Amino acid sequence: MIRLINIIILTLTILTSYAQQLPVHSGNNNNPFLYNPAIAGNKPYIDIRLQHKNQWLGIDGSPSTQLLSAHSSVDKRSYGIGGSIYNDRSGVLSNTGLSLAYSYHIKLSETLKLSFGIAASFAQYRINRNKVIMVHETDNLVDVSNSANTFAPNAGGGIYFYNDGNFYVGISALNLIPLKINYQNNSSTPQVGHYYLMAGKTFYIGESFSLQPTALLNYFENNPLMADLRMKLDYNEFLQFEAGYRIKDGLIAGFGIYPHPDFGVSYNYNLSLTSMRTGNYGVHELMLNYIFYYRPAYKMVRRRYKWIDRSNKSDGSNGSIPQID
User: Fold this and answer.
1) Number of domains making up the chain
2) Burial per residue of 128-147, b for 16 or more beta-carbon CB atoms within 10 angstroms, e otherwise
3) pTM to 2 decimals?
């Protein structure tokens, strides 16, 4: 039975390597920077996030992903920088990647901004042959004596239109260079484009609550369009509750707690409604978030204006962070 499961996982991961080659995160709306480099530096602080995801728990060799990301604006400059590093393992296949991003932000008005971003990435793909359980040990198709490694650079870009406190719309494309991932015996899979359209808006309810509906559309070449629809309830920037639906996949639920304004923990659970739900315990993802202010004055301004009505008061304020010279 264990051999059968390993064969199934190997088959699935090889097939999906042609489609989704970048990790998908259950808590994607908590870290949209991973999908759009134009988001880098959209706030006056360093945003650091550490994520761990386990998928299909209960199945031997199930996929798991670990990721560390950070991005920030550059003090008194109109550009931002960021980067991420991840390790993704699925059955006998695994890959480790590094991505760097640069963005340029244009101030359209006192509250509206438009940014453009580019990203460069580099990934190492591996087949761990020593984990392959062979039905026929003499099969020459896969050499289990060592592991195969292949390296692949790539690039992407994005556009992001946003208001500091109320809404955002972004479009991006990653893996734009159609290079091939080459393995042994002349086998290879092409890197395919990953395209994203994201949008979200925050509605403030009194001085303590806010609702944020978000949508993320994904398209991977030669695959059907996917959509991720969510609603987040926030209480006083301390507690967060989330529910959503990923079309052609399943239900999403999550919560987060911020015991300190600069530090938070969130958890997301994805329950598949497809045939893959049989025999596994869904997708679990944990995220740690830390905010570092390179200028203490920015933190004080944020707290001072925290509960100004962000829906356009007579004084024109809407919760955006004022500029400090």
Assistant:
1) 1
2) bbebbeeeeeeeeebebeee
3) 0.81
